[in-house]
């Protein structure tokens, strides 16, 4: 994602970089500033709410916590890029060049994998509530999260290998760019992003929520519907804000593989002029969740105060016992009165037997 903030144009477009465009740098710096002001404290508040105020950390809250950590980490990096866009010069050195781009890619991969886990867990909880308890073990979930973070850290290594600070020809300014052949780097880096960030996760997410929404339409429990609406809003917001970025990735890979000619020039114009905008939109995704949580939990604010978000997350977490009781209530709703009468009758019979036995027992004891 962050590669776009200082991608160097191909030879056909000269040696101009994105920071040479006054409009692009001004708009980019403005967007990143707003994103930082909203996203950084917002994600910190989410992390604090879950760790300090949540009475129970469910599977859903653990996933939301890790998502907030990923988004908050990205928000913490935005000041470096704001300075870069304002100064139009990379002043942070070669090590930070590699580390910042690496961490940006880690955030992208971590966010999408956490969204996948969230979607699959909700699918399991909705379709197979009896079996969800076997997958809700806290230790198991923590192990899965550790594996996810390790995998995304390994998958992001190319961003660190292919990056270093380069001086612009004839100037004293520097850019952080790939030092290998630009076409080869584009194919490798953006193809990997497309596979891990789009082609695999998006179908999984879409199919999961199609199944979830079909099942929700058959249920009568408003609270579950509200919970699923919140999770669905998180997923849809993430997917929609990242979709333009992945589309431009496709265009850039096609440009890199395309032979010289008119089509290659058209593809070059598309990705080069759109990259800054789509990257800014992708950055917005990291500050969108706190806003969604605020509007979803505003009914808790007056009653719970600063703990409103923790209560909101507890409301979205459906434990297995609750799911089972709700499912049993749904399956037996047509025979509710009959079942209730049977239960009352059985209770009376049990009480009668207990009373009889209690009356006989003292006689036997001679009391």
Spans of at least 5 consecutive residues whose pLDDT stays below 50 are 8-14, 318-367
Number of helices: 13
Query: What is the topology, as strand order, of the major beta sheet?
Result: 1-2
**Average pLDDT for all residues:** 75
Task: Walk me through the topology.
Layout: H1 22-53, H2 59-87, H3 93-127, H4 138-155, H5 157-161, E1 163-167, E2 174-178, H6 182-199, H7 201-216, H8 222-257, H9 262-296, H10 298-304, H11 308-316, H12 320-331, H13 336-365
Antiparallel strand pairs: 1-2
Could you describe the 3D structure shown?
The protein is mainly α and 367 residues long. It has 2 domains: 2-320, Rhopdopsin 7-helix transmembrane proteins (Up-down Bundle), CATH 1.20.1070; 332-365. It contains 13 helices and 2 strands, in the order αααααββαααααααα. Strands 1-2 form a two-stranded antiparallel sheet. β1 (163-167) and β2 (174-178) form a beta hairpin. The radius of gyration is 27 Å and the shape is globular. The model is unreliable at 8-14 and 318-367 (pLDDT under 50).
Give a quick set of tags describing it:
single chain; 367 residues; mainly alpha; Rhopdopsin 7-helix transmembrane proteins; 2 domains; two-stranded antiparallel sheet; 2 strands; 77% helix; disordered C terminus; Formyl_rcpt-rel; receptor; Leukotriene_B4_rcpt; leukotriene receptor activity; complement receptor activity
């Amino acid at each position: 994602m962050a590669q776009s903030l200082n991608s160097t144009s191909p030879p056909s477009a000269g040696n101009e970089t994105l920071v040479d465009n006054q409009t692009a740098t001004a708009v980019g710096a403005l967007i990143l500033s707003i994103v930082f002001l909203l996203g950084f404290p917002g994600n910190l508040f989410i992390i604090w709410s879950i760790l300090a105020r949540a009475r129970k950390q469910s599977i859903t809250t653990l996933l939301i916590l890790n998502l907030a950590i990923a988004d908050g980490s990205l928000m913490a990096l935005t000041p470096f890029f704001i300075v870069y866009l304002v100064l139009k010069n990379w002043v942070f050195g070669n090590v930070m060049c590699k580390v910042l781009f690496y961490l940006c890619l880690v955030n992208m991969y971590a966010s999408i994998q956490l969204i996948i886990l969230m979607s699959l867990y909700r699918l399991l909880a909705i379709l197979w509530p009896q079996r969800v308890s076997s997958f809700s073990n806290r230790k198991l979930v923590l192990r899965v999260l550790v594996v996810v973070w390790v995998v995304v850290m390994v998958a992001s290594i190319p961003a660190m290998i292919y990056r270093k600070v380069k001086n612009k020809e004839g100037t004293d300014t520097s850019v952080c760019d790939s030092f290998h052949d630009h076409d080869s780097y584009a194919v490798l880096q953006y193809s990997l992003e497309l596979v891990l960030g789009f082609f695999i996760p998006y179908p999984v997410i879409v199919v999961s929520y199609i199944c979830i929404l079909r099942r929700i339409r058959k249920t009568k429990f408003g609270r579950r519907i509200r919970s699923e609406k919140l999770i669905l809003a998180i997923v849809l917001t993430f997917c929609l804000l990242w979709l333009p970025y992945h589309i431009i990735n496709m265009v850039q890979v096609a440009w890199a593989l395309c032979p010289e000619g008119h089509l290659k020039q058209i593809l070059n114009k598309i990705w080069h002029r759109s990259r800054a905008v789509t990257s800014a939109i992708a950055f917005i995704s990291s500050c969108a969740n706190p806003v969604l949580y605020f509007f979803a939990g505003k009914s808790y604010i007056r009653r719970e105060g600063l703990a409103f978000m923790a209560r909101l997350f507890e409301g979205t977490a459906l434990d297995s016992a609750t799911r089972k009781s709700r499912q049993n209530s749904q399956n037996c709703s047509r025979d509710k009165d009959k079942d209730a009468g049977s239960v009352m009758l059985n209770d009376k019979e049990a009480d009668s037997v207990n009373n009889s036995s209690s009356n006989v027992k003292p006689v036997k004891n001679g009391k």
